[in-house]
Each structure stands twice: as structure tokens, then as C-alpha cells.
Amino acid sequence: MREIDGKCVLITGAGSGIGAALARRFSAEGARVIVTDIDGDAAAFVAAELEAPHFQLDVSNPDQHAALFTDLDAAGLTPSIVCLNAGIAVNGSVESPDATWQRAWDVNVMSHVYGMREAIPRMVANGGGYIVTTASAAGLLTSLGAAPYAVTKHAAVALAEWVAITYGDRGISVSCICPQFVDTPMLGAFSESSEETRAWVQSIAISPEEVAERTLEALAEGRFLVLPHPEVERFMRNKANDVDRWIAGMQDLAKGLEPGA
Ligand SMILES: NC(=O)c1ccc[n+]([C@@H]2O[C@H](COP(=O)([O-])OP(=O)(O)OC[C@H]3O[C@@H](n4cnc5c(N)ncnc54)[C@H](O)[C@@H]3O)[C@@H](O)[C@H]2O)c1
Questions:
Q1: Which of 118, 148, 204, 217 could form a disulfide with 104 if both were Cys (CB 3.0 to 4.6 A apart)?
Q2: Averaged pLDDT, 99-114
Q3: For the CA of 149, the nearest atom of ligand 1
Q4: Could you state, in order of their start, the residue ranges of all structural domains in the chain?
Q5: Best CA proximity match to 18, nearest among 218, 227, 212, 186
Q6: Ligand 1, residues 106, 182, 203, 229: which to mutate, most atoms within 8 A of Cβ?
Q7: How far is CA 208 from the centre of its chain?
Q8: Against a cut of 0.85, is the pTM above it?
Q9: 28 CA from centroid of ligand 1 (Å)
């Protein structure tokens, strides 16, 4: 499925950052975008600009997913492209409280399970569809100082791979967005970091519009991995070639930088 014009596209976390950029980009391509966010006002703001419907959706709540998809069916707005984008930056370590880990797990991973649980059977029944998940380069490599984020983003990548493998023959395509830093409010996770760390983050950060552009290119090609920072592919190869050398390099990097998302 490569055509976007006229397609119904549901986006989570679309009130800000990458989700809002995806909403604007899909809308510019003629898609009928459905804007959702836990922040109902933010969703309404983006939706007003695009003259799109909007819904308050907490992605960590399975009942809200089920109710939303039922409402969309009734309105004739069953999405054929679903962007499971909402996520949160969670710093911490193995010493962080269980509640910190659980929140990261619910918002960054189970949200994808809940969205797929509703979307995939409908897509299969309708002859196919496209699932786009926003993971992170942290899901392929790591995230210094942010174990819950790195671990849950790895799980998000694993889930996307599994769905692509399992449902490919039933018309379901999957793309997984894995950027490094993107200039969105999420970078506020670095507000307490040193000037040096913040400068490093900003030097790597790209715009959410660029992420959206690279995502639509991947959709057009039916490509699984969306790597808006092309160097991430090289880092992945280095890691796969010699994981001990990669860990030693990351240890050196960790010495010079403070924790962040
Ligand atoms: N900004 C980065 O550097 C970066 C890098 C790699 C991956 N990502 C990922 O991109 C995705 C989007 O992040 P962003 O950078 O645009 O951040 P953002 O903070 O600008 O936007 C995230 C949006 O998700 C919403 N949200 C948070 N919790 C939610 C929930 N429980 N239910 C529904 N909506 C919720 C927020 O209200 C917000 O509108 C996330 O999954 C994030 O992990 C971001």
C-alpha cells in the first residue's frame, strides 16, 4: 500500500513534536488525518489547523483505544494507516522505582500493543494497512543515563519487527522510526544537564519536519527502518560487527556526558 491521498491516518501523540509534524505532512499529501493526544487541547490545536477530527487518547489505556476505534468505525473513519507515535522520555537506572519502569513500559510499549490490537484485525479485514511506530535510535543502540527509555524502545523495535514478519502476508506493512535527537519539547529532559551536554544534543538534533519527510519516503518504498540520522545505520553495523568494541566506545562517551533521554 503506497498511496496516501484520501487515506485515513490515525496519529497518536499528534499534539506536539514528531506527531504534529506527521499530521501536517500526511495532511499535505491529501490524507484524512485523525489527531489524537493525551493533551486534548494540544490535539484540538493541531486539528484546527488541519481541519481534522481530534480525540483525547491516553495511549497507555487499552479501553480508550477500543472505544476510539469503535467510534471511528461508526463514523466511517476506520484508519488504514496508524502512526503509534506517542512516547515519553524516562531517565533512570536499575535503581529507579518500579513505577518509573512501569510508566515507561505502558506508554512506550504497551501503547503499541493496544493500538495494533485494534488496528490490525480491521486492516486485515479491509485488505491491508500500514502501521508506523515511533521508537528511537535508543531502541537500536542505547540511551546514556536512561535505562527505562533504552529498554522500552528496544522492545518497541522488537514488536514492530515481529508484526512485520507475522502479518506481512496479510497485507500489513510496518515502518519503525528510529531517530536520534529531534528538536521537540521532549528535549526538555536535558534541561538540568550541563551546557556541554545540551550543546552536544542540539548539534545532533534535527527538526520534526525532517523526521516526517523521511517517514513518508520510507512509506513510499515500503521500507521498515526509518533512520532520519543516517549515521545510525553505521553505528548499528559497528555494534553488530563487534559488540565489545561498541560497548567500550559507549563507556568512553558516557564518561564525558551526563544522563539524558
Ligand atoms: N525528540 C527526540 O529527540 C526523540 C528521539 C527519538 C524518538 N523520539 C520519540 O518520538 C515520539 C514523539 O516524541 P516527540 O519528540 O515528538 O515529543 P513531544 O513531547 O513533542 O510529543 C509527545 C506527545 O505525546 C503526547 N503523550 C505523552 N504521553 C501520552 C500518552 N500517555 N498518551 C497519548 N499521548 C501522550 C504528549 O502530550 C505530546 O503531545 C516519542 O515516542 C519519542 O520517544 C523522540
A1: 148
A2: 98
A3: 43
A4: 8-256
A5: 212
A6: 182
A7: 12
A8: yes
A9: 21
pLDDT-derived band at 1, boundaries 50, 70, 90? very low
Grid cell at residue 244: 565489545
8-256 CATH fold:
Rossmann fold (3.40.50)
Residue 249 confidence (pLDDT): 95
Integer Cα distance of 45 and 86 in angstroms: 17
Residues in the chain: 261
Backbone phi and psi for residue 4, each to the nearest 5 degrees, phi listed first: -110, -35
At residue 256, does pLDDT exceed 80?
Answer: no
With b for 16 or more beta-carbon neighbours within 10 A and e for fewer, the 58-88 pattern comes to bbbbbebbeebbeebeeeeebbbbbbbbbbb
Ligand 1 centre to CA of 254 (Å) is: 24
Q: Is the CB of 21 under 6 A from ligand 1?
A: no
Q: Are 92 and 100 in contact (CB under 8 A)?
A: yes
